[in-house]
Amino acid sequence: MGQSLRLWTPWFFIMSKQLSERGTGPGGVGRTNGKSNLILWLKADADVSLKGDKVSQWNDQSGYGNYAVQLTATAQPTYIARNPALNNQPCLHFNGRTEFLRVNHRDSLNLSEALTAFVVIKCTDLQQNNGLFSKSKSCEPYSNYALSIEGGKRRLLFEHAQQKWTQFASFGTIGNKAVLITFSFDSHTRHGHFGLNGQLMGDFTDSQKLTPNDHILEIGVHNRCALSGDWLNGDLAELVLFRGTLNSAQRVLVENYLCAKYGLPIASTPSGKDVYFGDTAEQGGYAVAVAGIGKENDGLQPEAYSGGLTVLDRTFLQHSGDYLLVGHKSSRNNLLDEDLPTAVTHRWERVWYFSISSGGNQEGKITLIFDNTACATPPPAESDYVLLERLTEHGEFTVVTQGEVSSEGHVTFNLEVSDLISGRYYTLGLVRPVSIMDKFTDLVRDWWQPKGSPVKRQPVAPPRVTTAEQKVIKLVERNLPLLDKGNALTADEVRGALVTMFNLIQAELPRDILAKVESIQQSILHTLPYIADVGSSNQTVYMVRQMALSYLPETLENYLKLPRDFALHEPIKDGKTARQLLLEQLDLLDHEMAEVVREFHRNDAEKLLIHGRFLEQKFTRGDSLLD
Predict the structure, then answer these.
(1) CA spacing 20 to 30 A to 328: which of 24, 65, 187, 607?
(2) Are 194 and 302 part of one and the same domain?
(3) d(CA 157, CA 145)
(4) Does residue 481 share a domain with residue 443?
(5) pLDDT confidence bin for 468, thresholds 50/70/90
(6) Residue 500: which domain range?
(7) What are the φ/ψ torsions at residue 139 (nearest 5 degrees)?
(8) Does residue 275 belong to any structural domain of this protein?
(9) What is the DSSP letter of 582?
(10) Residue 224 belongs to what H/E stretch?
């Protein structure tokens, strides 16, 4: 491999412009350039000014400069560096009596159309009213918009005024644990929504619009008048405000970013989606800067930025439910020389976990862009770059593909989504380009080297090999209780067993094997609606049942028991490796299931022809529908 391509094309000029305006907001939604619909972003792990442990200023990350300030010492909230209730993230504690922050009015906060808010909070005392934020005039409560928690009833309250004061409450309630509160109101549709940890907890319709005003935005209090008011008693970790409403995909991405960061649960329901899985302890806790691209029926989010990595959609986001999210766990990012494949000299310290889910076939194109300015160690001049991947959090990386380098130092990878595997770990690798001296050395070595001697110098970027780790995964044993159920077995149980099996193996097997497994799985799922009784002794039904619960799991389990290198390289029959034999066995199972699907289709077609002949005989005699 020679030097990486240096892009000077107009296309990359456009891409560079996009990169400078990338989705740098929470979860990749909005941009932090002071020009997007992200108008306020306060997070306790960034730009908090302290006097001792008291907060005098909390800097806005949106780019609009909407800083939250408190100059009066007795009204300053307390900074807590690590809060176990918030996944050991920092927060600001408000005492419920006197403490609040003020954000001076700016045009960006003068909302009349729509508002979307995300608040990560843990309340201490829910018997009293807790004001979250309020854009109102002191001692004039009926001013503009406010979000609070009603004391005793623990409901969320949204209040605003135009010609009269209106108030709306959620049907769900807030508990004493840390939570993510989501709220939106659209003046055009007059609809509002309350959410808790991604789940809908109430909606409403209002007859009034938001009213623009120049009042101060106060955080941690509502209805303030001197020392009275609805004071927040609890811990505030993050507050995000958008001008306008977000589409469903954007809301899901922000919620996944916040819930991953603060260790909050998201239960997948029609109103909420957990689409990022790298934040769990099993995957290594990759919960920093979670961001992604995604699509739902009402819109999409095509760009995202996470700590030096930009993800751009090209043709992937075609179906509702298409998502690609990334997250890392490293506050530092230097060049390392460990866990590297042959000929790769260094890699970034920062590694990302990838979560990919698809509402259709996982296909289409994306672009990954690594920004070298995000690495504290300058790369060697004229470096070549490769995308690195590994199966688990630890271990050696393998090379995926070669990158293209721009004059600005950005490294670009244009990929098919199928080139990436959900649940694996990716980072940027550096390789030494082949120099003129390297070529001269090769010529000299070839001249002196006896004919037929092996060449010792390795290629710059070896071909990628993705393999299964030697790992005990018991696929057959978990299905035995289902096989023993006989006639009591249901189609939903078969469907659930298939989904569980695929989730267990998808991070362990090479892509070509996974593709075969997925094809067999889809054929089985396609037959289930045709089968009235999956526990039947009918020969075809028996074959489908055994394929799902026995033949396929046993085939995969036998392969996964083998050591990785042995399975890949050691011939075991007729000169073929275990991997090659497995592919042949999966081809056979795939063929058999495809034939079963065709048989069901032929039966449907035959029924259609029989019914057609019946209708023809019935009505060509002149029979009437009334006969």
Answers:
(1) 65
(2) no
(3) 11
(4) no
(5) very low
(6) 477-613
(7) 70, 10
(8) no
(9) H
(10) strand 221-225
Beta-ladder partners of 130: 149
- Residue 103, C-beta contacts closer than 8 angstroms, at least 6 positions apart: 40, 60, 66, 67, 68, 69, 109, 216, 217, 218, 219
H or E element at residue 571 = strand 571-573
Q: Single out the residue of 423, 306, 318 nearest to residue 366, CA to CA.
A: 318
Residues 415 and 523 in one domain: no
Per-residue three-class SS string for 323-336: EEEEEECCCCCCEE
Residue for token pair 């721009």: 406
Q: Taking the CA atoms of the chain, what radius of gyration do you get in angstroms?
A: 30
Q: Do both 492 and 364 map to the same domain? A: no
φ, ψ at 604 (rounded to 5°): -60, -45
Average pLDDT over residues 47-60: 95
CB 340 within 8 A of CB 429: yes
The answer to whether the beta carbons of residues 305 and 22 sit under 8 Å apart is: yes
Q: Is a pLDDT exceeding 60 seen at residue 570?
A: yes
168's CB contacts (< 8 A; 6+ apart) are 157, 158, 159, 192, 202, 204, 206
Q: Give φ, ψ of 114 to 5 degrees.
A: -165, 160
Residue type, 346: H
C-alpha–C-alpha distance, residues 593 and 599, integer Å: 10
Report which of 127, 125, 255 is spatially closest to residue 180, judged by C-alpha positions: 255
State both tokens at 331.
Answer: 């506050």
Q: Tell me the C-alpha to C-alpha distance, in Å, between residue 270 and each of 31, 245, 255, 296.
A: 28, 18, 14, 12
Taking residues 270-299, what's their average pLDDT?
93
Beta strands in 52-145 (DSSP E): 54-58, 68-69, 78-83, 89-95, 101-103, 114-123, 130-135
Cα–Cα distance between 504 and 185 in angstroms, integer?
41
The answer to the question of residue 258 being in a domain is no
Which amino acid is it at 179?
V
Pairing of strands 309-313, 365-371: antiparallel
User: Taking residues 146-166, what's their average pLDDT?
Assistant: 83
Both tokens of 68, joined, read: 């939250």
DSSP state of 171: E
pLDDT in tens, 171-221: 888 988 999 999 999 988 889 999 999 999 999 988 787 877 788 999 999
For 512-565, give the DSSP string: HHHHHHHHHHHHHHHHGGG-S-TT---HHHHHHHHIIIIIHHHHHHHHHTS-HH
- Residue 223 is encoded by which pair of tokens? 């209805």
Q: How many domains does the chain have?
A: 3
pLDDT reading at 607 higher than 90: no
Same domain, 336 and 422: yes
Is residue 431 in some structural domain? Answer: yes
Structural tokens at position 341: 């494949």
Mapping DSSP to helix (H, G, I), strand (E, B) and coil, where does residue 491 land?
helix
Residues linked to residue 368 through DSSP beta bridges, in sequence order: 311, 413
CA distance 405 to 3: 9
